[in-house]
């Protein structure tokens, strides 16, 4: 699949181009907004990774031009700006995801793959799996190593979210919005409690552990790499 990176910081742009190329993608790189907008509008890219602060045309203008032209290409904003207003503006303009610098390349790669899967119009999944953990969406059942595990509706929704975005570090705010349809309040520990209870059911007594805490960022469900 073909990606476009619009990033004016040379070191970051080259590193992303190399890393995504090694992951199997064809990658174009633009180092200014004017070139980036032209390539985004004229190219046949499956995904655009777009910085906000760019010379020539900024990321907001490029995204706006894409959407006004009727282009539904998924856009992942990549920026050092972490203000809520910036994230809201990007989403309102039609961005599909938003990743704040600095970030781990593994997280970027997971988000890229997730956005590409969403855009393929695949047949809806009925079963999600990680290692020996299986979630049956039709029967609303969960098994690990063949053992049936009983979950509450919210625990099931939380596990489904983690499995669907396997490999992505999910912040507490996103989990709270997706599972409880609420704005995250830093004064509540609802997410921590739910994660702890889910871990006790699907990780305790099983190997390997699948739900991991990324300190200061959130939680991720992933299968540890073999030693």
From TrEMBL:
Residues 125-223 bind DNA. CDD domains: REC_OmpR_CusR-like (cd19935), trans_reg_C (cd00383). Residues 2-116 form the Response regulatory domain. Keywords: DNA-binding, Phosphoprotein, Transcription, Transcription regulation, Two-component regulatory system. GO terms for biological process: regulation of DNA-templated transcription. It comes from the Bacteria. GO terms for molecular function: phosphorelay response regulator activity; transcription cis-regulatory region binding. Residues 125-223 form the OmpR/PhoB-type domain. Transmembrane segments: none annotated. The keyword Cell division does not apply. Gene3D superfamilies: 3.40.50.2300, 6.10.250.690, Winged helix-like DNA-binding domain superfamily/Winged helix DNA-binding domain. The modification 4-aspartylphosphate is found at residue 51. One of its GO terms (cellular component) is cytosol. The keyword Phosphoprotein applies. PANTHER family: REGULATOR OF RPOS, TRANSCRIPTIONAL REGULATORY PROTEIN CUSR-RELATED. This is Heavy metal response regulator transcription factor.
